[in-house]
Amino acid sequence: MKHIHSEIIQFRGTHYDFGYWQGEKLKNSWTVKNREKQWKVRKPRFTVEESEVKEAITRFAPGIWDELLGLRDALDWPMERVMMEFGGYRVDYKRSGCSIMTGDGYFIRNYDYMPKTYEGRYSFFQPTDQGYAIIGPTQRITGRMDGMNEKGLVMGYNFMHRKRPGDGFICCMIGRLVLEACANVEEAVAMLREIPHRHSFSYTVFDTTNQTYVVEASPRGVEVRESNVCTNHFEIMTKENRNHLVDSMKRMDAINTQRASLENADDAFRLMNDTDGGVFSKLYSSWAGTIHTSGYLPKEMKAWFALGGDQTPVEFDFANWLGGIDLDQDKIHGEVDTDIPFVHMEDGAYWSGKK
């Protein structure tokens, strides 16, 4: 078992100042060092013009562009590198797993991915210039793989495939754009129809009305359905699905067959996080091991978070934090059953030329 942690990030202020502050913290970090070694092995082919990325981002959430500028100035990087690392537009993204279920007042998700990509940051950001405050774990610094905003909108995504990518945003930046700019599921669905999608993912959105929509999105189209469970296959755009869906179906069946016995959000969290529940995955070397389980209770404005399986989640009162009460703790701790290094904690979280 590997002991891991996520750093708790708390910031109130402008997007630019948030970016600058994050850049200062990233200097000489393992995250940056490992990424630098990664690019030496896999030479980036990033040729998108700054004006194109700026126009794409500011169309939906202009504050995020200011955050990128802050990162640029703090790290003293050329804007091309900032866009490649943190811009989330027309860049590559690896495959992943993930399972999501919703119920009366709750949204629970397992984030299944590769430790070498997991940056271990759980963010509280309350902007003073524009956009909604957001709580949730980060991906590629500016992106969010799941989260809840101050209006009680919750979002999480599930990987489908990377075939035939388009000119658009990757999943974690799409998650950030939705939480930054949308107040409810209707606004989120409308934005997800409009956003250009780089790869094929499902985005599950949920809010204080208990309404859940699963938005099936690919570079070739978007479909919307109502559902309270989502794993790693489309149910409307089935022609987009991968050929091998056994694991995705298995996790969906595990959720659906046990749902009737769940009495509350705690039971749902245990179903997702317990390693013997049929949903939690240990396929870390296959880019599909459960690293964290998130829970969001938008009516109560509370969030749960656990690193690894069989864990008691840490509970955050987002309403209190929005009211100005900072957290005393600076890290969330957990255990993951893998020997693979984590990008934010140790050397070696990159790929050799052979792997």
Essential attributes:
alpha+beta; seven-stranded antiparallel beta sheet; 355 residues; single chain; Penicillin V Acylase, Chain A
How does the SSE layout of this entry go?
Layout: E1 2-13, H1 15-26, H2 30-41, H3 50-58, H4 62-75, H5 79-87, E2 99-103, E3 106-113, E4 121-127, E5 134-139, E6 143-144, E7 146-149, E8 154-161, H6 171-181, H7 185-194, E9 200-206, E10 212-218, E11 221-226, E12 229-230, H8 246-258, H9 265-273, E13 282-283, E14 288-297, E15 302-307, E16 314-317, H10 318-322, E17 331-336
Parallel strand pairs: 1-4
Antiparallel strand pairs: 1-17, 2-3, 2-12, 3-14, 4-5, 5-6, 5-7, 7-8, 8-9, 9-10, 10-11, 13-14, 14-15, 15-16
Helix pairs in contact: 1-4, 4-5, 6-7
Label the overall shape: globular
What is the count of β-strands?
17
Helix content: 25-40%
User: Which segments are poorly predicted (pLDDT under 50) over 5 or more consecutive residues?
Assistant: none
Backbone structural class: alpha+beta
Question: Per CATH, what is the topology?
Answer: Penicillin V Acylase, Chain A
Mean pLDDT: 93
Distance between the termini: 23 Å
Quaternary organisation: single chain
Number of helices: 10
- Largest sheet composition: 10 strands, mixed
